[in-house]
């Protein structure tokens, strides 16, 4: 029997080797399959990777596309991925892939990298080296350790789109992000948290890009005089730290999706905010409806999603606000299913005392279910299925239907921080958040930059 097993093992190796000649990239692809623990349902069982689902090869049997986004894959990426020298598209978005990103050094045919909404922890310094054909990069919503956009990205002279929201970029925004290095770059997107640590800035011009998410904390920018953020997709409230900035002389916030009360700057500040070009609750400064304040407090832990901000217009959430259902002016249903939400579940949901159904299913929410939600007197349904939640499920009354399916770590303790905000503070009428602004990342070094100009069109 022992000899037979040895013979079969040897035969299997020969069989695999013979078939792997069908594609020069077979060794790398089998490494990828193994490291991602690819399930049989994906259809990667054929000895020739060119016959796999979501994989495209050239006539020469070279792998040109790997398109396995939204497949609920886990594991890590193999270090030999850079040997796929004819690869044009690498699409791994919306999975649970973890570990460090491998170097893609030398993949001169690679045009598109989609890695958003995974669990990657680091970016190698040579990640962009030699990517001369690269046109689009999306690495949003990954728990990277602090990293600086490397100068090697200058090799990607064909770059048109760079999106890195919630990607923990530290240091200064590179000065080489301009038309000289990237003549085709028309849109920069993602958040701008990094500028809150650039404490010597005097002018920030980030207009006419694709930046999104909440505005950062401006309290440390004591020398900031001019701020132009118009024509982007910023959401959330205008922070008091910006409104109260004594050095500020010029501010331009038109054509965004800013929410809450319209801010009131000092009379010495030249303000450009075109009427109805944001999502302020009122066309003039004043108090927002208490229901508006509560809903904005709820979505703060989700970084004020753009899809919600685009729909939430006016001062009455019972008038066609997406995801909101009311009865006699009382919010009874919040349905955010399949809205691509990230972040955590806010304890502020407990402030919606009339809530009967809370549906957050099929998103990418993390953290745990807040204990405060159990205090809702009329709650009948809580559906948080198919997210990335962990921790103990709070004890609800017997008449509440709770669905937590599709959260692999539910009931388990995971070392990860969750929201600790208390449902007691609402947005003020004068400024936005009642706080400094977004400050999700901390511990970064200050920059000595005096001027940032990023105006591409």
From TrEMBL:
UniProt GO cellular component terms: membrane
Region (Disordered): 407-445
Biased composition (Low complexity): 416-432
UniProtKB keywords: Glycoprotein, Kinase, Leucine-rich repeat, Membrane, Receptor, Repeat, Signal, Transferase, Transmembrane, Transmembrane helix
Membrane topology reported for the UniProt record: Single-pass membrane protein
Gene3D superfamilies: Ribonuclease Inhibitor (3.80.10.10)
Residue ranges occupied by any Leucine-rich repeat-containing N-terminal plant-type domain in the UniProt entry: 23-58, 290-327
Main location: membrane
Signal sequence segment: 1-20
A GO molecular-function annotation: kinase activity
Pfam families xrefs: LRR_8, LRRNT_2
Entry's localization field: Membrane
Record-given protein name: RECEPTOR PROTEIN KINASE TMK1
Organism encoding this protein: Salix koriyanagi
């Amino acid at each position: 029997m022992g000899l037979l097993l040895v013979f079969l093992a040897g035969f299997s190796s020969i069989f695999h080797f013979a078939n792997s000649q069908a594609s020069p990239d077979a060794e790398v692809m089998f490494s990828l399959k193994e490291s991602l623990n690819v399930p049989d349902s994906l259809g990667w069982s054929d000895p020739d990777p060119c016959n796999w689902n979501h994989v495209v090869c050239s006539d020469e049997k070279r792998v040109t596309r790997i398109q396995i986004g939204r497949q609920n894959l886990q594991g890590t990426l193999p270090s030999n991925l850079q040997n796929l020298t004819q690869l044009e598209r690498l699409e791994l978005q919306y999975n649970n892939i973890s570990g460090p990103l491998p170097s893609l050094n030398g993949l001169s045919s690679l045009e598109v990298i989609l890695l958003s909404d995974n669990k990657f922890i680091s970016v190698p310094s040579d990640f962009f080296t030699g990517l001369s054909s690269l046109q689009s990069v999306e690495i949003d919503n990954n728990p990277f350790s602090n990293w600086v956009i490397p100068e090697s990205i200058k090799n990607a002279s064909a770059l048109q789109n760079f999106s890195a929201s919630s990607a923990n970029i530290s240091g200064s925004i590179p000065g080489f992000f301009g038309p000289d290095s990237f003549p085709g770059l028309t849109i920069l997107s993602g958040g701008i948290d990094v500028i809150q640590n650039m404490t010597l800035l005097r002018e920030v011009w980030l207009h006419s890009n694709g930046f999104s998410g909440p505005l950062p904390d401006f309290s440390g920018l004591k020398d900031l005089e001019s701020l132009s953020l118009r024509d982007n997709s910023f959401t959330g409230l205008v922070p008091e730290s910006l409104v109260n900035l004594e050095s500020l002389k010029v501010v331009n916030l038109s054509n965004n999706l800013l929410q809450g009360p319209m801010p009131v700057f000092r009379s010495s500040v030249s303000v450009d905010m075109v009427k109805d070009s944001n999502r302020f609750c009122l066309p003039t400064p004043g108090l927002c409806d208490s229901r508006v304040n509560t809903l904005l407090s709820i979505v703060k832990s989700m970084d004020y999603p753009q899809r919600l901000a685009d729909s939430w217009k006016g001062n009455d959430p019972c008038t066609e606000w997406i995801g909101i259902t009311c009865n006699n002016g009382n919010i009874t249903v919040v349905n955010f299913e399949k809205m691509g939400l990230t972040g955590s579940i806010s304890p502020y949901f407990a402030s919606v005392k009339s809530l009967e159904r809370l549906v957050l299913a099929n998103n990418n929410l993390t953290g745990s279910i807040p204990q405060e939600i159990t205090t809702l007197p009329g709650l009948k349904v809580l559906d948080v299925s198919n997210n990335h939640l962990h921790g103990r499920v709070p004890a609800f009354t017997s008449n509440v239907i709770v669905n937590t399916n599709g959260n692999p770590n539910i009931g388990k303790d995971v070392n990860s921080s969750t929201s600790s905000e208390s449902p007691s503070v609402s947005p003020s009428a004068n400024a936005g958040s009642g706080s400094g602004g977004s400050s999700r990342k901390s511990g970064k070094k200050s920059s000595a930059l005096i001027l940032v100009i990023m105006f591409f069109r």
